[in-house]
Amino acid sequence: MTRLLVIGLALVGVVSIGRTVMGPADVGHFRTVEGREEYVGYYQRAMGSMPAPSSVQDIPTDFGTVRVYIWDAGNAAADRDSYPIVLLPGRSSGVPMWSANVSALIHSRQVIAFDALGDAGLSVQSAPLTSMGDQAAWIDQVVTAVAPRGVHLVGHSFSGATATAYARLHPQRVRSLTLLEPVFTFAYPPVAKLGWVTIAALPGLPESLRNKALGRIAGEDSAGSDPLALMIKAGSEHFDANLPTPSPLTKEEAESLTMPVYVAIAGKESLAGGRDAAERAEELLPGARVQIWKDATHSLPMQEAEPLTQVLEPFWHQAESAR
């Protein structure tokens, strides 16, 4: 994994959150045609490194059209007998961020991944998303279309909060909930990062200053040419995402999460809140499994793809057996 990939994935949880806080409630869009072309070019290159999907669909919802990729399991019986996994990407990224995870997961069950509506990707927003209820609504419309029996829901970074909102509001659809470095879920991002977040999120910022800000955020140098990292960086620079900012779970909200829950927190450069977030998750969700990955950063799903699969497969199997 290149250093820029780590920084790009840090953007998922930090830089775009800064823009979310500052932007008006409107429809997300690329600022320029050229910016979109740059992003899509890296997106296509990054998708080229993934297994070919079994199906690609554009699902209409009340808030816009959602790009969905489906990978059938290598074992047809697994698709018939188990619930699919739905992957929600972090901010400014899109489905390609799950490259390493999809490759590891499709051996045993169907995998479905969305480009988040109102964010960088190939989904197209047509109406404002003004609340976490709106976020949950479009996800439910997609899940109804592609996996009506229910899903194992996985969210990273900002989409950890989105996945949590969906699970709270539509618990009948969620067989289990997996939260990977979820920001604005159990704690706010570290205060020390927020000044550099604001700088890095400014449109038109000189490249040298942006790279300095990204380096301060991620604790890495911003050099490299990985298509996935460059895609995420292009998304953060060129896409104006105007989405509701979630708030950490309250005790009352947590009580509605009755499905099995797994929470993964990074041991280094955590943007989810680190050990404080882990302790809060254990307090709010005493039945959840909460794990700190001591050598991982906010890029945890990519850095720990194979070990994470080894943890999640028995978690999902147990969740299905309990139903």
From TrEMBL:
TM region(s), chain numbering: none
Superkingdom in the source lineage: Bacteria
MF-aspect GO terms: hydrolase activity
Pfam families assigned: Abhydrolase_1
Originating species: Actinomyces johnsonii
Listed name of the protein: Alpha/beta hydrolase
InterPro entries per the UniProt record, alphabetical: AB_hydrolase_1, AB_hydrolase_fold, AB_hydrolase_sf
Keywords carried by this UniProt record: Hydrolase
PANTHER family hit by this protein: HYDROLASE, PUTATIVE (AFU_ORTHOLOGUE AFUA_2G14860)-RELATED, MONOACYLGLYCEROL LIPASE
Gene Ontology CC entries for this record: membrane
KW Hydrolase (keyword) present: yes
Domain AB hydrolase-1 positions: 83-191
Keyword Hydrolase: yes
Phylogenetic classification of the source organism: Bacteria, Bacillati, Actinomycetota, Actinomycetes, Actinomycetales
Gene3D superfamilies hit by this protein: alpha/beta hydrolase
